[in-house]
Predict the 3D structure of the following.
Amino acid sequence: MNDLQESKRKVRSEFLELRNKLDRQTAALYSDMIFSRILTMPEYQKAKTVMFYITYGSEVITDGMILSAIRDSKTVAVPAITNAFDGEMTAVKLSKLEDAYNFVHGVRQPEIDDELVVEKEDIDLFFVPAIAFDLKGNRTGYGKGFFDRWLANVPLEKIAGIAFDFQVTQELPVGEHDLPVGAIVTEKRIIRPIKN
């Protein structure tokens, strides 16, 4: 294992342990606070089509965010893995949470119906999870690379990370294929990294 992979492995282990210690009630409270901040974002207010991830494990809870966006007549897309071996995914329109009944890698996702696939170009704002973010907008995920590959050509200003504030650190180990985000929303703040 090279130095970068080892550094990332340590980050994943450290921040997952922290996140897993958060009790469900506090996680729900912080998740509501995060969504309150999202509601203040001009890019969210203007967005007609948004993409949220569906919560896995101890991630920030997005169910309420998804339901609220649907109620506000936004088109909501969620990730759906199309090829688990090659790390390929797409976005599928979700009209109600109950439609996400399939489990791939332990993550809920809807049936991939061609009529419900949402093209990347039609999504105004993407919300992505991570195990950790840094103040430059870099993210460490689970290491599968689904989001990095799929969002490779999407402008940074359309990509926002969602995390608990303790998941944000000064600096993360980064590889050439790691995709940063244009904003990070936590229960305490909205971070907009300045890109050089």
The CA atoms of residues 25 and 106 lie 22 Å apart. The two ends are 31 Å apart (CA to CA). Helices lie at 3-21, 24-38, 42-46, 63-71, 146-150.
